[in-house]
Sequence to fold (389 residues):
Amino acid sequence: MKKSFVLLAACLALLAVPGCKNAPKKTTLTPEQKNAVEAQLSQMSLREKVGQLFCTRPESLDPVFQASSMGMMAYHMQAVNEETKAFCEKYPVGGVTLFSHNIDNPEQLKAFTRDLHALAGAPLLSIDEEGGRVARIGNNENFNVSTYASMAAVGATEDPGKAYEAGVAIGSYLKEYGFDVDFAPVADVNTNPKNIVIGDRAFSNDPKKAAPMVVKFMEGLRKEGIGACIKHFPGHGDTVGDSHKEYVQSDKTWEELLNCEMITFKAAIKAGAPMIMSAHVALPNVTGDNLPGTLSHYILTDKLRKELGFQGIIITDAMGMKAISDRYNSGESAVLTLQAGADIVLMPEDLPEAFEAVMAAVQDGTLTEARIDESVRRILALKLSLKEN
Fold:
């Protein structure tokens, strides 16, 4: 199974050239790189392709871990073991996301990310490092890195250059410690004072002030070779509930979203955002139903892809969040979000169940292999566009 990832490693080496940090705003693969992606894709089995569609926490790769009986924070997985390596031969995931409990000190983290990169699937490594209260490394006292009170404080300066500086600083230490993607910046607009999940994670309550901050933070990450993930589409800043804990909806119309939340997302798309994270927020006055945005073809494909023109990777928010998991099992939600237009399924509660459900959906025609290939191409292209570690 590892054989078909040898070419990917070779392709990534193509990017280890001078001037990579001065990449254009919109990443365009050369004909040679496009051919490399197609060659890689042609060598992959269906199982390897499906694996690329999943990004999970390290604990889900260890068969010792049982989500139903052992909290992941109590488990504190901080190293790759032989069981993990064997598990990934069967489930070769394309991405792994680390949390605070996976991180102890600089030496441990460098060894962990090195060994995770070497797993079957050649996973991209991601982390939530927004700055402020959501900073898995920045809030660890064992690391001497730049820290920030909040992105709202950065936004209050009304100087996009400060957001760029933050992106460069965070991107620099993420690259040093072996990461590829930062689940940041937050593009939500903090317009609802009753909102309990976004708050000072957003740059502003004014989309016209937030938009240049989002773009500049993203550009700062890009300078350091880190891919940004803009979140949470189509906006979580005007909700009262927390999708981690419950069903959440926004009553805004699409016109209202265009005049607020979409200002930041459109700016990020225009600036070449490589990845956007979907929110589990229902928009009944847009879609006419109560489907969370992550499962809505109308939101992800008709609006984000077609109307807004986003061609990068759509990754879901964590599928174990209650807005999804209270209504759907891991297999159902994985298939539904891929049908809706997502490319990467983030942290399903039960990875094997979700993985096998997608395999079965392709085999019975619910999902076509051509649809899987579409997402895998985007994922391989992102891997190719990032600097080799």
